[in-house]
């Protein structure tokens, strides 16, 4: 039984040792650095692409993608909390006892070991009470304790006697912060919610290890409206959501939120995090490039797939943007930002051609000089937006007469019996202009001619049966919200405040001790002035020397015989 008790005591002492606490702190600090450098709770595909299969599976097996919830991190955290608890349990009673004891006497051996030590030998012309009063006068604001033992008089002066509260506060504060962090990890959450304008949601999604988990909130969030302001460069300046909290079917709170100004309800902070398309209605206009001059429209929504049976293609709409601010300046180093209008992104699939990612613009491109360059789109054969290449279609498809002119030109060209020279092209174009516009030519017919000739070179080479262009839209945003509950946050703040106070006590409130020892001997009096401090020794040495000088002057006025030794 005794051996078991001894074992428990040894383990308890080992848990409270400084060496173990330092090792645990170093390991946790290293792990925290890894958790800071390696972004946590990202998509697994992103990790796989970034690190490759070997490192991905190694990091995943160690739990580094969600490190703060792993068993080994929580175990280290628990051992550190237990170590701090053992340390406080062992040392706090001793520190409190030491602060309360305030022993007034001091032995000769301790006096001799002190570096700050000065002595006098005085005659009988000055009383003990006078000497003690002179010291008290010079040490205003200090605590004093007078003791007499075996005919020797001790006057102890203390300042900062409660300094050990700094050590107690720092250790206790670290423990409190760790407890708050543990509570947050175990009982808190942080997840994302996307709410389209006019709709309600109550479920958040978050990464849990290598999986995506979901959690229902005890209330619903409705997005009434979403507003966004842009800088002249097109970068978002501010985005604002007007939200209503619905609890048990009742509207309990309506408020605007912007970045860094969250909404708080039932212990949950609701942050404005992102925005995007909330499922806008879009209408495509299909331009058949089989020579039939046929056009038709088809309606769908963002994030849905439109299957067109007539052309045997499918269009997966991935995004819509009502604004596209670009630098349209053609001069190097010069910037001229302009909104070039709405765009829709989609992936087009069909028989006979490879799937392509397309960003089609609703408006024709107007260059920096105001010239109409016709309709255009960005095309990525790889499916990655980074590989977009501009494709100028030539025709301004927002003008139906240019589509007619294009086909009329082809018809007239076929009547030229195979002639393909500049003269034949000019004649065919004039006849096509007559077919479409009659005797009244449009004001920009020359630019229209250039665009038509460009379309003749480009459109027949496209492998698609139709060209899907954005015709109309009804836009709606979604607001990206981040909902977070951190039940340990207030505990962490309290611990942080205690930590700051404790550090201030440790660094700015040193414990300074001075003894005046008066020992009658040989028909006179031997006086010893000794001092000790636990911090800032140079400043205390100056204080001690100044005190000795002043007392020496005071004592010299009262002594009748004897000399200082």
From TrEMBL:
One of its GO terms (biological process) is cytochrome complex assembly. GO terms for cellular component: membrane. It is a multi-pass membrane protein. Keywords: Cytochrome c-type biogenesis, Membrane, Transmembrane, Transmembrane helix. The keyword Transmembrane applies. The keyword Membrane applies. The chain crosses the membrane at residues 20-39, 71-92, 165-189, 491-509. It comes from the Bacteria. It is found in: Membrane. InterPro entries: Cyt_c_bgen_Ccs1/CcsB/ResB, ResB-like_domain. PANTHER family: CYTOCHROME C BIOGENESIS PROTEIN CCS1, CHLOROPLASTIC. This is Cytochrome c biogenesis protein. It comes from Mariprofundus micogutta. The lineage of its organism: Bacteria, Pseudomonadati, Pseudomonadota, Candidatius Mariprofundia, Mariprofundales.
């Amino acid at each position: 039984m005794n051996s078991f008790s001894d074992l428990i005591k040894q383990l308890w002492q080992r848990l409270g040792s400084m060496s173990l606490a330092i090792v645990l702190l170093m390991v946790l600090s290293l792990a925290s650095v890894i958790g800071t450098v390696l972004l946590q709770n990202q998509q697994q595909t992103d990790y796989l692409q970034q690190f490759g299969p070997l490192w991905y599976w190694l990091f995943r097996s160690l739990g580094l993608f969600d490190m703060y919830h792993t068993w080994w991190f929580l175990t280290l955290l628990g051992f550190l909390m237990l170590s701090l608890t053992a340390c406080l349990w062992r040392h706090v009673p001793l520190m409190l006892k030491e602060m309360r004891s305030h022993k007034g006497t001091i032995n000769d051996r301790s006096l001799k070991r002190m570096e700050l030590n000065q002595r006098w030998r005085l005659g009988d012309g000055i009383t003990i009470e006078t000497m003690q009063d002179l010291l008290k006068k010079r040490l205003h604001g200090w605590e004093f304790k007078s003791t007499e033992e075996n005919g020797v008089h001790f006057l102890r002066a203390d300042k900062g006697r409660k300094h050990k509260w700094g050590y107690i506060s720092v250790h206790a504060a670290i423990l409190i912060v760790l407890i708050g962090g543990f509570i947050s990890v175990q009982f808190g959450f942080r997840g994302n919610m996307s709410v389209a304008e006019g709709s309600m949601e109550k479920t958040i999604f978050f990464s849990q290890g290598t999986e995506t988990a979901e959690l229902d909130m005890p209330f619903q969030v409705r997005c009434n409206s979403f507003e966004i302001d842009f800088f002249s460069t097109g970068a978002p300046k501010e985005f604002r959501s007007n939200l209503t909290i619905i609890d048990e079917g009742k509207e309990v709170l309506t408020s605007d939120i912007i970045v860094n100004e969250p909404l708080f309800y039932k212990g949950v902070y609701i942050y404005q995090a992102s925005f995007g398309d909330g499922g806008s209605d879009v209408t495509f206009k299909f331009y058949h490039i089989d020579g039939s001059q046929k056009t038709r429209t088809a309606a769908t929504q963002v994030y849905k797939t439109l299957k067109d049976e007539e052309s045997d293609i499918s269009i997966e709409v991935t995004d819509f943007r009502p604004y596209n601010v670009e630098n349209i300046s053609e001069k190097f180093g010069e910037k001229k930002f302009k909104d070039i209008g709405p765009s829709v992104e989609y992936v087009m699939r069909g028989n006979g051609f490879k799937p392509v990612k397309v960003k089609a613009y609703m408006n024709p491109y107007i260059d920096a000089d105001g010239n109409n360059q016709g309709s255009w789109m960005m095309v990525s054969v790889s499916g990655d937006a980074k590989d977009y290449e501009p494709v100028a279609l030539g025709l301004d498809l927002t003008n139906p007469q240019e589509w007619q002119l294009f086909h009329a030109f082809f018809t007239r060209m076929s009547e030229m019996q195979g002639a393909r020279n500049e003269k034949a092209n000019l004649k065919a174009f004039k006849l096509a202009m007559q077919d479409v516009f009659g005797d009244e030519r449009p004001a920009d017919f020359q630019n229209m001619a250039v665009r038509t000739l460009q379309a003749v070179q480009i459109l027949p080479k496209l492998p698609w049966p139709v060209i899907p262009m954005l015709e109309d839209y009804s836009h709606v945003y979604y607001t990206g919200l981040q909902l977070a509950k951190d039940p340990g946050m207030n505990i962490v703040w309290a611990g942080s405040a205690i930590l700051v106070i404790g550090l201030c006590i440790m660094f700015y409130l040193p414990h300074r001790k001075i003894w005046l020892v008066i020992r009658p001997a040989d028909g006179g009096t031997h006086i010893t002035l000794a001092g000790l401090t636990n911090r800032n020794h140079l400043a205390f040495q100056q204080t001690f020397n100044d005190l000795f000088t002043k007392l020496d002057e005071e004592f010299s006025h009262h002594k009748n015989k004897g000399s200082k030794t």
